[in-house]
Amino acid sequence: MDADAPVFAIAVAAELAGMHPQTLRQYDRIGLVVPGRTRGGSRRYSMRDVEQLREVAQLSSEGMSLPAIARLLDLEDEVRMLRRRVVELEGALRAERDNRPGVRVFAAGATGSIVPVGSSRRIRRSTEVVLWHPRARRAAGDERGSDRADDEG
């Protein structure tokens, strides 16, 4: 089952989270845990929502305020989104390497030196990787560099 699929009615989600349904309604009103909605407007909670409700209950019992919990949940969502994006970008980089044999990838080292990156080498998180696509420059209308030679020939 997809962890983000909104399948649980409020009574079921409240039971799974160990809370009263009115607490779930309050959390929805303040934007703490916002469930999906049916066409008729009924709340539908996902398993991820239920996990967040449990986390809210735990953090609240430890003395954390609801605004602090809301901020923490927002940051967790952002980290999850960024991790997905990193996986997407790594896949795109792998596909680019596979589709363009002979193309070399370079990284800027900590001292500013340029170092080639092998296809099986993992880049340290502190290193930035920039891919240069000569065709992309031409499409963007940039007529500097190697494109100028094409125009003159």
TrEMBL record:
Q: Matching Pfam families, A to Z?
A: MerR_1
Report the transmembrane regions from the record. none
Keywords, ordered alphabetically: Coiled coil, DNA-binding
NCBIfam families tied to this protein: HeatShock_HspR
Q: Which residues form the HTH merR-type domain?
A: 7-75
UniProt protein name: MerR family transcriptional regulator
> Where are the coiled-coil regions?
72-99
Query: What PANTHER family has UniProt attached to this entry?
Result: HTH-TYPE TRANSCRIPTIONAL REGULATOR YFMP (PTHR30204:SF58), REDOX-CYCLING DRUG-SENSING TRANSCRIPTIONAL ACTIVATOR SOXR (PTHR30204)
Q: Lineage of this protein's species?
A: Bacteria, Bacillati, Actinomycetota, Actinomycetes, Micrococcales
Which InterPro entries is this protein grouped with?
A: DNA-bd_dom_put_sf, MerR-type_HTH_dom, MerR_fam
